[in-house]
Protein 1
Amino acid sequence: AQSVTQPDIHITVSEGASLELRCNYSYGATPYLFWYVQSPGQGLQLLLKYFSGDTLVQGIKGFEAEFKRSQSSFNLRKPSVHWSDAAEYFCAVGARDNQGGKLIFGQGTELSVKP
Amino acid sequence: EPEVTQTPSHQVTQMGQEVILRCVPISNHLYFYWYRQILGQKVEFLVSFYNNEISEKSEIFDDQFSVERPDGSNFTLKIRSTKLEDSAMYFCASRPGQGTGANVLTFGAGSRLTVL
């Protein structure tokens, strides 16, 4: 069955510390891969995406993610977290033959940032 | 930056009542979607809509649900007779389908539905 797993429900990091949010997927073929962020009262904002090519992708707000086919993973990283990064982060996958429109989401990781 | 607009932001309704959630997708987008998130659970796909018809729907999207694009700008989700388990945040999304960002969904801020 197709699924996305974000093993960490809640993570707390100190401001200025590095961050890695984990995402693993189970899918028949390499899907399109996405990370979205949701701040309170806001919609789901795209951070970055992987379709093909370089497996290290850069996104907005200083985030990056690395696609590892052998591990079926697409972990999100940021070298230095800011207090404004506190939000919920969702990993999602979409089928290439569906052009990525129908997404399967992970359960989300809530990030708290300590001053 | 263009955005997807959803109304209302929060609606409270009695069980059995009809609810219409409204969305204004980005104007040049061709593909439209509804997703929902029950509190504490994953965001789930409900339905996709293209060229004035449903292109795909999930098993959640039963006969109680319908979608419509009545006037070329709005995209609505109707729940005919709401149940307690319909309480959720409903997200509308759209994507261009061609050109830059063809396969990237832009989501609205969501409509929270509470069924009492």
Protein 2
Amino acid sequence: ETGVTQSPTHLIKTRGQQVTLRCSSQSGHNTVSWYQQALGQGPQFIFQYYREEENGRGNFPPRFSGLQFPNYSSELNVNALELDDSALYLCASSLGGLRGRNQPQHFGDGTRLSIL
Amino acid sequence: DAKTTQPNSMESNEEEPVHLPCNHSTISGTDYIHWYRQLPSQGPEYVIHGLTSNVNNRMASLAIAEDRKSSTLILHRATLRDAAVYYCILRDVRRAYSGAGSYQLTFGKGTKLSVIP
């Protein structure tokens, strides 16, 4: 069973730029959730994609957007990068719908994004 | 989701049992108690979850108070590899019946567990 993989592992950008982060979900999972983790804090929910549609969003501005593809992999896009966007971005896959109720989320090891 | 309260940090000696507490006084009847942990430089990993009865798996045990206002994650024999941040999270199972997607996890700051050789 292949786990959740994220790319790239590290990235450095400057303010105002745009970035795309990628996530491959675990085999058999149809739901991908994205989280932002600032240093010393717990992860904060950004949004979730289920069967290629956004299915819930946390308190993040519209410049955070995403996609999910037919193979259930996903992208997180952030426009107009700000210094406060520096964080670890985590992707988690899971089985959605009734079959997946109470099933755990499986996390990748994240992308460390630094904004200069 | 109801809130949880955990100590900021705990220490344990290697090969001794560890009891990690979590208070959730506003828990509702449909809230499951989930535990995840995050090792250094890794994403969180699922540890265990339960509703009312105590639960055991290969990683840990979960002891839930009779009134469900608190719970304790038990590592029976701490190893250096157990040094991590442990998160106690409540999850309302009713959200799973919305028919779409999966639940989101609401993380606090967790408990940083240090294991002393």
